[in-house]
Amino acid sequence: MTVVSLSSAAATPSEIVQSPLPRLKITEIFLSLQGEADTAGWPTVFVRLTGCPLRCGYCDTEYAFHGGQWRDIDDIVAEVLGHGVRHVCVTGGEPLAQKRCLVLLRALCDAGLEVSLETSGALDIGGVDPRVSRVVDLKTPGSGELARNRLDNLPLLTARDQLKFVLCDRADYDWARDMVAAQRLHERCMVLFSPCKDRLDARVLADWIVADRLPVRFQMQLHKLLWNDEPGR
């Protein structure tokens, strides 16, 4: 089986060649319920890629920073299809840190699946297949990675995408609220505000959103309410 493969993030059309499906380093593939964004609650296959250039202070998937196994993309797609559900989420780590993630996303779309991508927003999302729903996590001051935000991604967002803010405290909330207003982000896509576990009470965040009548969607991580931090759930 062959696909068109991007040899690098900066590949030009003349540099795209026909080649066997390449490999990606994978931490885990598992079936669970989607816990976030607009497909929350749907049975979903998660494909977690290994590696991340960021070090957010609240990261809950540090085990994906290192290790993993190299897998052929056709094998990954076959395993996803074998679970028998239509939703698949490619996540990390930071999945776009592996350039061939773009090939995987396209292959999953070609297989007829509903595909979402969870990305930090620190890397260019412009090359992602337009059939993919991009869930972009814009980093707040409390994350410790504010400077890594690639704001050039914001004009690329469409109604198919979602923009997520994980909030640690009132300062994060004020920053995110002002960012939404200044950039009119709610007019581009769904905007999600989430409380950081153990750092911001969910009820407090909900009250702030209601008081300010923000055009954002409050969300909690369904999978953590059900299974806490159990790996593979």
Automatic annotation (TrEMBL):
<keyword id="KW-0949">S-adenosyl-L-methionine</keyword>
<feature type="binding site">
    <location>
        <position position="52"/>
    </location>
    <ligand>
        <name>[4Fe-4S] cluster</name>
    </ligand>
</feature>
<comment type="similarity">
    <text>Belongs to the radical SAM superfamily. 7-carboxy-7-deazaguanine synthase family.</text>
</comment>
<comment type="subunit">
    <text>Homodimer.</text>
</comment>
<dbReference type="Pfam" id="PF04055">
    <property type="entry name" value="Radical_SAM"/>
</dbReference>
<keyword id="KW-0456">Lyase</keyword>
<dbReference type="GO" id="GO:1904047">
    <property type="term" value="F:S-adenosyl-L-methionine binding"/>
</dbReference>
<feature type="binding site">
    <location>
        <position position="56"/>
    </location>
    <ligand>
        <name>[4Fe-4S] cluster</name>
    </ligand>
</feature>
<dbReference type="GO" id="GO:0051539">
    <property type="term" value="F:4 iron, 4 sulfur cluster binding"/>
</dbReference>
<feature type="binding site">
    <location>
        <position position="59"/>
    </location>
    <ligand>
        <name>[4Fe-4S] cluster</name>
    </ligand>
</feature>
<feature type="binding site">
    <location>
        <position position="91"/>
    </location>
    <ligand>
        <name>substrate</name>
    </ligand>
</feature>
<dbReference type="InterPro" id="IPR058240">
    <property type="entry name" value="rSAM_sf"/>
</dbReference>
<comment type="function">
    <text>Catalyzes the complex heterocyclic radical-mediated conversion of 6-carboxy-5,6,7,8-tetrahydropterin (CPH4) to 7-carboxy-7-deazaguanine (CDG), a step common to the biosynthetic pathways of all 7-deazapurine-containing compounds.</text>
</comment>
<feature type="binding site">
    <location>
        <position position="61"/>
    </location>
    <ligand>
        <name>Mg(2+)</name>
    </ligand>
</feature>
<protein>
    <recommendedName>
        <fullName>7-carboxy-7-deazaguanine synthase</fullName>
        <ecNumber>4.3.99.3</ecNumber>
    </recommendedName>
</protein>
<dbReference type="InterPro" id="IPR007197">
    <property type="entry name" value="rSAM"/>
</dbReference>
<keyword id="KW-0004">4Fe-4S</keyword>
<feature type="binding site">
    <location>
        <position position="93"/>
    </location>
    <ligand>
        <name>S-adenosyl-L-methionine</name>
    </ligand>
</feature>
<comment type="pathway">
    <text>Purine metabolism; 7-cyano-7-deazaguanine biosynthesis.</text>
</comment>
<dbReference type="GO" id="GO:0016840">
    <property type="term" value="F:carbon-nitrogen lyase activity"/>
</dbReference>
<dbReference type="InterPro" id="IPR027621">
    <property type="entry name" value="rSAM_QueE_gams"/>
</dbReference>
<keyword id="KW-0408">Iron</keyword>
<feature type="binding site">
    <location>
        <begin position="33"/>
        <end position="35"/>
    </location>
    <ligand>
        <name>substrate</name>
    </ligand>
</feature>
<dbReference type="InterPro" id="IPR024924">
    <property type="entry name" value="7-CO-7-deazaguanine_synth-like"/>
</dbReference>
<keyword id="KW-0460">Magnesium</keyword>
<dbReference type="GO" id="GO:0000287">
    <property type="term" value="F:magnesium ion binding"/>
</dbReference>
<keyword id="KW-0411">Iron-sulfur</keyword>
<dbReference type="InterPro" id="IPR013785">
    <property type="entry name" value="Aldolase_TIM"/>
</dbReference>
<keyword id="KW-0479">Metal-binding</keyword>
<dbReference type="GO" id="GO:0008616">
    <property type="term" value="P:tRNA queuosine(34) biosynthetic process"/>
</dbReference>
<keyword id="KW-0671">Queuosine biosynthesis</keyword>
<feature type="binding site">
    <location>
        <begin position="58"/>
        <end position="60"/>
    </location>
    <ligand>
        <name>S-adenosyl-L-methionine</name>
    </ligand>
</feature>
<feature type="binding site">
    <location>
        <position position="48"/>
    </location>
    <ligand>
        <name>substrate</name>
    </ligand>
</feature>
